[in-house]
Design brief:
This protein has about 400 residues and is mainly alpha-helical. About 70% of the residues lie in helices and about 0% in strands. It has one domain (about 1-390). It has a two-stranded antiparallel sheet with strand order 1-2. Helix 7 packs parallel to helix 10 (about 265-285). It is globular, with a radius of gyration of 23 Å.
């Protein structure tokens, strides 16, 4: 009877963590499509829940295995320790939200589990080292992926990509036949339709990536403890994340969409592709990774790559080019033609607003370091010193 109550408490803790993850992840995945009026919040939430479940049910199982039996042996988990670990994960989310920093949930989860391993002498250092190594590599990969796209590919995409929604419906349906036949809305161009469908597709891809990386964070400790079967745990986490997606995320979609107004929809799509691809690939090999980390660094890289077009590769290499990361090199007006690298000038592309604030980036990076370190320290202190007193 006591174990049943403990399991209920553990499930409630998982639901709380999942609820907060849903509120954060849905805003990141669907803020740009909703802000660009490509889809409404209700339909975005429905797609978010479906693809989160799909990501967790497929790729997320490999991350679950790493968290539940890779960092420390599965037998070290019990319902009591699982609840404590989930508490520290929730605490990490709360602290990050207080400081208005995107939540590095995966990193906080790893830190909490590693603390238990340190306290019990069962930490698998090789596995932890591999995870931390990818944490160091991921920002570099995301930055340079964004940089290459911004410097060599973005201007050509800008010529063909429509980032503004026209007035009226995107599609209309003719009811002359048994099956209604869709046609373009009165003001919709084929280019606009393709752009909107692409943006919605990227939102689905981001949701899949969020499910693959975040569903394990909410339930892996309970799965490791044997409290929940893996498939059941994925369903529970999906429901919790879905509730967050339908409630607090609806407000976050508005805020994320408005915060990205200085970043054109095309740039937001490219960032989403890079971040989701990096996160999904690492989740596939079982590495718990933060979607936020890849997102932020790809934004910085894309802006750097776009701004670096004012100088040739030789000028950049020998240090003659002064590339300012604080400018916003993404004009609102769609380019009609592509200028050659080295011909553009800062005054031609600078919108007069900041794309990157160094202090903000430094705060984000510091939390990527502080978050898992603090969660590991608190977890270690609890299991090594406080728990033996009871």
């Amino acid at each position: 009877m006591e174990l049943a109550w403990i399991l209920i408490v553990g499930v409630i803790a998982s639901i709380f963590v999942g609820f907060n993850i849903g509120g954060s992840s849905a805003g990141v995945a669907w803020g740009a499509p909703v802000g660009g009026k490509g889809i409404n919040k209700k339909n975005a939430s429905i797609l978010f829940v479906f693809f989160v479940f799909f990501g967790g049910w497929t790729v997320g199982r490999k991350v679950m295995e790493t968290l539940g039996d890779g960092i420390i042996p599965a037998e070290m988990f019990d319902l009591y320790s699982s609840i404590v670990i989930l508490f520290f994960i929730g605490l990490g989310i709360l602290v990050a939200n207080i400081f208005k920093v995107p939540v590095p949930t995966s990193m906080t989860t790893v830190g909490s589990i590693a603390g238990l391993g340190l306290a019990t002498g069962t930490l698998q250092w090789e596995v932890l080292g591999r995870i931390v190594a990818w944490w160091l590599v991921t920002p570099i990969v995301a930055f340079w992926a964004g940089g290459v796209v911004g410097r060599y590919i973005y201007p050509y995409l800008e010529v063909y990509f429509t980032s503004e929604r026209s007035e009226g419906p995107l599609l209309e349906f003719e009811n002359r036949e048994i099956i209604p036949r869709p046609k373009l809305g009165p003001n919709t161009t084929p280019q606009e339709l393709i752009s909107v469908l692409l943006v919605i597709g990227i939102g689905c891809y981001m949701s899949f990536s969020a499910g693959a990386s975040n569903i394990p964070n909410a339930v892996a400790p309970l799965v490791g403890a044997g409290g929940l079967e893996e498939s059941t745990a994925i369903i529970v986490a999906t429901l919790a994340i879905g509730v967050g997606g339908f409630t607090i995320a609806r407000r976050n979609m508005d805020s994320v969409g408005s915060e990205l107004t200085d970043l054109p929809l095309l740039a937001a799509v490219i960032v989403a592709i890079i971040a989701a691809s990096v996160t999904s690939a690492l989740s596939y090999i079982g590495i718990p990774i933060s979607l936020v980390m890849a997102t932020i660094m790809s934004i910085v890289g894309l802006g750097w790559g776009r701004a670096s077009r004012t100088a040739t590769l030789i000028e950049s290499t020998i240090g003659k080019a002064d590339i300012d990361l604080t400018i916003n090199p993404f004009p609102k007006e769609r380019a009609d033609k592509v200028q050659k690298i080295g011909e553009e000038e800062i005054k031609d592309i600078d919108t007069g607003k900041e794309l990157v604030r160094p202090r903000v980036i430094a705060r984000f990076v510091s939390f990527w370091i502080i978050g898992p370190t603090v969660s590991a320290g608190l977890s270690y202190s609890f299991f090594a010193f406080l728990l033996p007193l009871f």
